[in-house]
């Protein structure tokens, strides 16, 4: 069973490398959206430093949303989803494999792009480790919750419209905790409680989202 799970993740990674438009589009959106914020906020360095945590987290959330509507849609259309479910893996593990592939192809590039964006926005160097410590579980939460929502709306009419409406309220707490941790580190306040809440959120999403995602895949396949 573990070998099948790894094979599905490897298959998704090969497809992502072959058709890299989604990953490139997410990273480009993340960078361009972050670069446009200084133009909207003005040239004040202090204002940019104050807004930097929220800007980075909001841009990461929106960039992670871009490829979600195609996470399961292509497999449903060409029949690959039925074949994946017939391999013998529980639907929840199939959903988890797709979520893991989404994080590896979208979350990891966003982590790499977050460092130069934070420097561009004037975030103090001491806050960069806290930013990365929060973005790692935060991007995992985005992939888990986003994959769950993508499976729930799979096959529904106007699923692409429903998807952000489902994801945004669910991931808002992660955004708040992550941005608050960076802001606390920037101002010299304790940031550990916010990171602990973010980790607790990830710990709750890790078992629940694949189960809900598997139920959505099973319903769509039927």
Automatic annotation (TrEMBL):
Keywords: Cell inner membrane, Cell membrane, Cytochrome c-type biogenesis, Membrane, Transmembrane, Transmembrane helix, Transport. It holds the Pfam family CcmB. The keyword Cell inner membrane applies. It is found in: Cell inner membrane. It is a multi-pass membrane protein. The keyword Transport applies. The chain crosses the membrane at residues 23-42, 54-72, 108-128, 134-154, 161-182, 197-217. Its main location: membrane. Required for the export of heme to the periplasm for the biogenesis of c-type cytochromes. Belongs to the CcmB/CycW/HelB family. This is Heme exporter protein B. It comes from Acetobacter musti.
